[in-house]
Design brief:
4 helices, 29% helix
Amino acid sequence: MIFNCIKNLFFSLLAVIASLTLLACAPGKALRTDVPPSGEVQGTYTLILYGGNYGDDLETIAFLDKEGDRYTLEPYAPEFIFRARKGLTADRALREAGEFIRSHAEFQREQFRSIRDEKGKIIGYELRPLYLPITFGTDDVIDVDYWLKEDRVMIYVKMKPSIEKRIKDLDRE
């Protein structure tokens, strides 16, 4: 009985240490996206084209990083996964982003969302492709998370696990 109490105490202590370690390694404060207010997107942007490295690349999305604010959008990925072009007008950045995300054969439409800082101010935008739901079971196939760490917004892009599984299952057939 004493052995079980010690064992339970040990595992409880281990769980607390693991939780504290994970919290200490947290990437920063999570940011949110939402539908931007109606009206034109104005200003100068750095256009970040993520993915699109082959014809069937589902992890493809475009980001518009507003220049002149205190934040920098940074994809958490090797440099060969994305490209950045600085100093583009909003119209040009949106046009190039739209052309970029439309490359997949199953593209259906686009979704435009604003990226907001912790106070709700728009600091950039994302333009993501939405696909034919009959192909993948859903139109939105990627998860994108934004984490604010000081003046950098780290962008994490990953295919949804259900989509990865569906593709692997199709490859086995």
